[in-house]
Amino acid sequence: MQGEQYTMDPMSESSTPRTIRLYNERPQALSAPAAAFEAATALVPNGAVEDRLHRPLRDLRISVTDRCNFRCSYCMPKEVFDKDYAYLPHASLLSFEEITRIASQFVAHGVEKIRLTGGEPLLRKNLELLIAQLAALRTPQGKPLDLTLTTNGSLLARKAHALKAAGLQRVTVSLDGLDDATFKKMNDVDFPVADVLEGIRAAQEAGLGPIKVNMVVKRGTNDAEILPMARHFKNTGVVLRFIEYMDVGATNGWRMDDVMPSADVIQRIASELPLIALEAAAPGETAQRWGYADHQGKHDPSAGEIGVISSVTQAFCKDCNRARLSTEGQLYVCLFANQGYDLRSLLRSGSSDAELASVIGHIWTDRNDRYSELRAALPHDAASTAPGARRVEMSYIGG
Ligand code: SAM
Ligand code: SF4
Ligand code: SF4
Description:
The protein is of the alpha/beta class and 399 residues long. The protein has one domain: Alpha-Beta Barrel (TIM Barrel). The chain has helices spanning 96-108, 127-135, 156-166, 180-187, 193-206, 226-233, 262-270, 343-348, 353-365, 371-376, 382-385, 394-397; strands at residues 7-8, 20-21, 29-30, 59-63, 113-117, 146-151, 170-174, 212-217, 239-244, 275-277, 288-292, 305-309, 322-325, 330-332, 340-342. Residues 1-28, 34-39 and 385-389 have low confidence and may be disordered. The structure holds S-adenosylmethionine and iron/sulfur cluster (SF4) (2 copies). One iron/sulfur cluster (SF4) binds at residues 68, 70-72, 75-76, 118-120, 152, 174, 395.
């Protein structure tokens, strides 16, 4: 099943370098496990499903659109996502009712946090209606979900209040620098920094905090922005997180040389703004947290904190409790998976909630994905140089 799709080929008989073969792309989906339909193996949710590596299911990321108004070079490069690119037709998209129905089965299995993403989620029409439906879900213990959204910020100033009123709790905003020329080079659509900052301000005013800002660091492109970003967001209550540029998707031409390891990011910031390592706030948290030190070298909580997400240099698969639902209803149990499980056809062929829950439970209990850990065992660049390597794009699966 899913785990076997990453064919590790450590020392194949040929003289080719070690590769992780990733050969499928978007339209391919596994039908849900047939066994899940049989009453004898029905899996009833108890809020505590675990995968083969004993990881619970806590976090669901839902992509609500595969479209975006940016063309970030590391995600939707212009040369590929051009005017001829075949985006999903509207009928393929899950409706809000379908998303909510699927999400409620995930919640029954233990999901406590839902993140809406994309593409650019704020491009999806009437997103507030979906937010209101998801905000009404309760965990088996009767608690509301941690409901959040990741956005490029371009439409946030306009929408922040409506999102909050619909029941959204927090937002994460992506911003790759404060220098306009650098940021425009990253978003590739000439979008100015000031408008994103205005979105962040509006989100703060609407109470969509604590706000996180994600900065993907590409060595040689925007690493000069690390310190200005840290200075800017220190003392503002915004948590700035530096993300290592990942080899996700198959179109961004990823090379290990473009990755700026988190350790270097921390070193650079600490050279001017002394830092202190903080404990993880929650199990499965992707970011390592750092606080600012005061003049005595003690942690100063009032200065705020930063985080580093080291998906490349320090794999965190062992605590990974995330599932991803694509725009058209494919379930992916790893960001680097090459195949999803087609939940939409289950929904549209009249499956009951119990059947849906059982299928989701079986998929999760069968999961043993740990792509980043496996990649870490390979020589630099091996994961990206496999000829014809194909994997799902981040804009489709949701980051
Ligand atoms: N459009 C929204 C945005 O940019 O915030 C949401 C979707 S985007 C795919 C989600 C997150 O993935 C963003 O913070 C983005 O910077 C990050 N991302 C996209 N491609 C990446 C890559 N190759 N490596 C690391 N992070 C990436
Ligand atoms: Fe769009 Fe977000 Fe991808 Fe940039 S990272 S292209 S904003 S989906
Ligand atoms: Fe989770 Fe897959 Fe990323 Fe590992 S590589 S942390 S299993 S999404």
